[in-house]
């Protein structure tokens, strides 16, 4: 697996006035500029860094932490749009590119969008995409009824909120099942209500009443066992 676009702990091969040269394994040496070094390093030391390609396509490291890594989702703001796409602020000096063919819908400067970071196979560069169809629903959903799942709010539709389930499938929370404020990029816990025959997934934010009662009963029984059969 490529280290590009991820945080890794690498060993220092050599230190110079310009910076440190790290062992990037299949990437070869990875350069960590001197202004990124927070404490004195020597050959043989290890350091946690995020790895990306610089403008010369050389593997470079930073000790800063981006808002997302390759394979992760984040809500990022568009700083600039030019002839090749939109550039988004992800917490590093060099902004991340969302090519036009990866924008759905087309992005506008100053607005924030939920995106997924990916590694472009042709260039090796880290890019952003809000064309989630290319990443999701690649496997058959095998969720049990009322299974607890982690959600990311992806947007609003005519019938409800579109959510990403376990970073693997699309789902929907119908408006009549929403009793709290929700926003794009929000992460929350939910429960699978139903997987339909066509593979679409209905999600709810709270378990139905009986399931809640059952869960409460289990907690009471656990406390009884812990307290020797007597509740204080």
From TrEMBL:
This is GntR family transcriptional regulator. It comes from the Bacteria. Residues 4-64 form the Conserved virulence factor B first S1 domain. InterPro entries: CvfB_fam (IPR014464), CvfB_S1_st (IPR039566), NA-bd_OB-fold (IPR012340). PANTHER family: CONSERVED VIRULENCE FACTOR B. It comes from Pseudoalteromonas prydzensis. Pfam families: S1_2 (PF13509).
């Amino acid at each position: 697996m490529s280290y590009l676009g991820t945080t890794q702990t690498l060993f220092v091969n050599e230190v110079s006035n310009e910076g440190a040269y790290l062992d990037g394994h299949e990437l070869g040496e990875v350069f960590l500029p001197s202004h990124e070094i927070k404490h004195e390093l020597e050959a043989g030391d290890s350091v946690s860094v995020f790895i990306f390609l610089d403008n010369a396509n050389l593997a470079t490291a930073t000790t800063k932490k981006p808002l997302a890594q390759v394979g992760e989702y984040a809500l990022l703001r568009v700083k600039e749009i030019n002839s090749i796409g939109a550039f988004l602020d992800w917490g590093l000096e060099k902004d991340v590119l969302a090519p036009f063919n990866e924008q759905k819908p087309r992005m506008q400067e100053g607005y924030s969008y939920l995106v997924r970071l990916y590694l472009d196979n042709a260039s090796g560069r880290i890019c952003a995409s809000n064309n989630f169809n290319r990443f999701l629903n690649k496997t058959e959903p095998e969720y049990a009824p009322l299974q607890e799942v982690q959600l990311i709010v992806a947007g609003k539709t005519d019938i409800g909120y579109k959510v990403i389930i376990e970073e693997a499938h699309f789902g929907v929370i119908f408006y009549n099942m929403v009793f709290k404020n929700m926003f794009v990029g929000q992460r929350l816990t939910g429960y699978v209500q139903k997987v339909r025959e066509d593979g679409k997934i209905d999600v709810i934010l709270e378990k139905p009443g009986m399931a809640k009662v059952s869960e409460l009963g289990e907690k009471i029984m656990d406390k009884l066992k812990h307290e020797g059969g007597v509740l204080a």
